[in-house]
Design goal:
By secondary structure, this protein is of the alpha+beta class. 49% of the residues lie in helices and 18% in strands. The chain has two domains: 77 residues, Arc Repressor Mutant, subunit A (Orthogonal Bundle), CATH 1.10.10; 172 residues, Beta-Lactamase (2-Layer Sandwich). It is built from eleven helices and eight strands. The strands form two sheets. It has a six-stranded antiparallel sheet, with helices on both faces. Strands 1-2 form a two-stranded antiparallel ribbon. Strand 7 and strand 8 form a beta hairpin. Helix 6 packs antiparallel against helix 11. Keywords: DNA-binding, Glycerol metabolism, Transcription, Transcription regulation. InterPro entries: GAF-like_dom_sf, HTH_MetabolicPath_Reg, Tscrpt_reg_IclR_C, Tscrpt_reg_IclR_N, WH-like_DNA-bd_sf, WH_DNA-bd_sf. May be an activator protein for the gylABX operon.
Length: 261
């Protein structure tokens, strides 16, 4: 638990409620109380109490027929206001589409949110066999999916060290390849190459590539990525995909730098 959560009154309750909100918004078809309590590491009674409080404020809603929890109307209103400052999807939409057209693979835009990435946009490529590991709203810890690996690679060394210290659970949850030593090796390779490669570490046979997108201050706040089946990412094609990915990421970084956001 961070120092802030230990010292700021009410911070633990806010952190728990925020975790539940993220889990609710990540579940496209709604989430059960049991699943939310499990994933938030809360008792059912605590999860239900927090969800009821969020429902009273309009931040979540519960379907009467299924009892599943879903985003509430106030989240939509807040989101429309926040989008004016933070949303880059309209700047990126044609670039993501171009990436999908040129590579024939599924292309994505993800944004960094604290220690995670959240997928904002997905464009399907024309190749008929696809990977469905990633879609809008799906979150991954930094360093796990190709987008988060690209972003983490270009953060300052002290930020990377602090992130890994905060998340010793990565190898237990995502496998031994996410222990510090192999993860740091992938980070170094990504930084040297310019783009990340995830060789089926989340789902066997589903490969991904990612390139960081930078804000006006040079911080890696977004990433473009590609996913597809393994044989489409062979050594003869990988460098070409990498160059295309980097070119589109540079185009989006330049567009963001020139915007008034």
């Amino acid at each position: 638990m961070s120092t802030a959560r230990r010292t700021v009154p009410g911070a633990q309750a806010i952190a728990r409620a925020s975790r539940l909100l993220r889990l609710v918004t990540a579940a496209a078809d709604g989430a059960s109380l049991q699943a939310l309590a499990r994933d938030a590491d809360l008792s059912r009674s605590t999860a239900h109490r927090l969800l009821s409080a969020l429902q009273a404020e309009g931040l979540v809603d519960q379907d009467r027929a299924t009892a599943l929890w879903m985003p509430g109307p106030e989240l939509y209103l807040m989101g429309t206001v926040a989008a004016a400052r933070y949303d880059v999807t309209e700047l990126a939409r044609d670039i993501v589409r171009s990436l999908a057209v040129k590579t024939e693979e599924s292309a994505f835009l993800s944004v960094r949110r604290a220690d995670e990435t959240v997928c904002l946009l997905r464009e399907e490529g024309s190749f008929p066999i696809r990977s469905f590991v990633l879609s809008e709203g799906v979150r991954f810890p930094l360093g796990v999916a190709s987008a988060g690996l690209a972003i983490l690679s270009f953060l300052p060394d002290h930020d990377v060290d602090a992130y890994l210290d905060r998340h010793p659970e990565l190898p237990e949850r995502w496998g031994r390849t996410h222990a510090q030593r192999p993860l740091r090796a992938r980070l170094s390779e990504t930084k040297a190459r310019g783009y990340s490669v995830n060789p089926g570490l989340i789902v066997e046979g589903s490969w991904g590539m990612g390139a960081a997108v930078f804000d006006r201050d040079g911080r890696p706040e977004w990433a473009l990525s590609l996913t597809g089946v393994e044989f489409r990412f062979g050594p003869d094609r990988l460098p070409q995909l990498g160059r295309t990915l980097l070119a589109h990421a540079h185009q989006l970084s330049s567009r963001i730098a020139g915007s008034r956001r």
